[in-house]
Amino acid sequence: MRGTRSVADVGGGAGRGARGVRDGSRGAAERPGSAGAALTAAVLGFFVITLDVSGVNVALPAIGHTFGGSLAGLQWVADSYTLMFAALMLSAGALSDAVGARRAYGWGLGVFTLASLACGAAPTLGALTAARVVQGSAAAVMVPASLALIRQAFREPGARARGVALWTVGGALAIAAGPVLGGLLTTVWTWRAVFCLNVPAGIAALLILLRAGRSPRHRAAFDLPGQLTAVLALAALTFAVIEGGHGGLTGTVAVAAGVAVLSGAGFVTVEARRRAPMLPLELFRRRGVVVPVLAGFAVNTAFYGGVFVLGLFFQEQRGQSALSAGLMFVPMAAVTTHFNYLSPRAVSRFGARGVVVSGLLICALGCGELLAVDTGTPAWAVALLMVPLGVGGSLAMPALTSLMLDSLAPERAGTAAALLNTARQTGGALAIAVFGALLAGGFMPGMRESLVLAAALLVAVAVGAAALLPRR
């Protein structure tokens, strides 16, 4: 199957795809059961860091009530994690290569666990946001290292493909379970429990990781200028959107916007001149790269932006509890896992172009249907209207991953995976910033404007994908 073969190639540091498989095979575990331990630790860690994205959104109103925070402050709680996750993803693979996947994953997991404890114990909204920055940074290290762990643990390609498939399912289940679990913990205990849940899970993953085989180290170039300009550009842009949406065009907002533009230009300049850039710009000459990057950005804009807005809508506008709000996402979550399995089969039968375009349009349809929702709409109807949003995203993303990896040489697999995940996380971060700014002008009008914006972006990218991609 085309999708399965491609997914098996994901992992390792940027630009080290095929080489990482060979080196990982040599460093595979000697002890019995160590391959299973590596896989279990990788899946458990990926589940937790993905759960943190969707689960926290439902807890935001409760966090606001505790600290008396504004909507802008709550946006930073969500975005500080996603922003660092996105900004550091491209170069995190180099760290995994340099120190070894097991060590990098252990470092990331340990820092993530401690940062989660700090989130749960945060005395102020500022302290919580700072801890979320650390969480997101650690999560960025964990993703490429977890995939590299799986690659080194399984020498046989079929076994490796099954391992990566289980890793992917762990992320899909986390996305599906996040809102429900976040709502349950917030209602039964407190929003702090959403973060504290990561602590025993992190400790368990670390103990399991001790049984995994040692990882080989490789020479890896770290692109510090590129990394710094990328973080500065994303952070300044997010700040300008969030603060500008709530306070208008102040001098501070104008300066932040200028910093974002200059840093973005600096990033492009640096990457064009370096011998070993973390993001080779020539990749964007390929249609099979441009389409997945734009489509991944659009899907996460709609999905994570939608979860953010709807989580607030259910609790702040409809007066539902956090648990009730989380349960509203169950039908959408149920289909998400199913269509993640269905997508590779659809790609094999119909080709990536048809699946990607269909997924984007279904996602856009979901955004359009939600325009009819108001505070008086029955809960069951709202829950059903959210289903196409999950169907479209879960249908498109595996196809986009397959398309991205099939468009590049095997040794570029790490770069491809990192670039696609960076685009997705950036879409989620900017969606929360922009949608939150729109909500500041009035919740219901802002919610509808957000849905229209997401739908328009999805349709535009779908039209572009249909024009750029071959029929098969």
Largest sheet: none
Number of strands: 0
Oligomer: single chain
Rg over CA atoms: 21 Å
Helix-strand sequence: HHHHHHHHHHHHHHHHHHH
Low-pLDDT residue spans: 1-30
Helix content: over 70%
* Estimated structural class: mainly alpha
Based on Cα principal axes, name the global outline. Answer: globular
Residue fraction in strands: under 5%
Spatial gap, N to C terminus: 14 Å
Q: In DSSP terms, counting alpha (H) and pi (I) runs of 4 or more, how many helices? A: 19
Rounded mean pLDDT score: 80
Give an account of the 3D structure.
The structure is a single chain. The chain is mostly helical and 472 residues long. Helices cover 81% and strands 0% of the residues.
Brief summary:
By secondary structure, the protein is mainly α.
Topology:
Blueprint: H1 2-7, H2 17-26, H3 34-67, H4 71-99, H5 101-120, H6 125-153, H7 157-188, H8 192-196, H9 198-209, H10 224-247, H11 251-273, H12 287-317, H13 322-327, H14 330-350, H15 352-369, H16 379-385, H17 387-406, H18 413-439, H19 443-468
Helix pairs in contact: 2-6, 3-4, 3-5, 3-6, 3-7, 3-9, 3-12, 4-5, 4-6, 4-10, 4-18, 5-6, 5-9, 6-7, 7-14, 10-11, 10-18, 12-15, 12-17, 12-18, 12-19, 14-15, 14-17, 15-17, 15-19, 18-19
Task: Give me some keywords for this one.
globular; 472 residues; 19 helices; mainly alpha
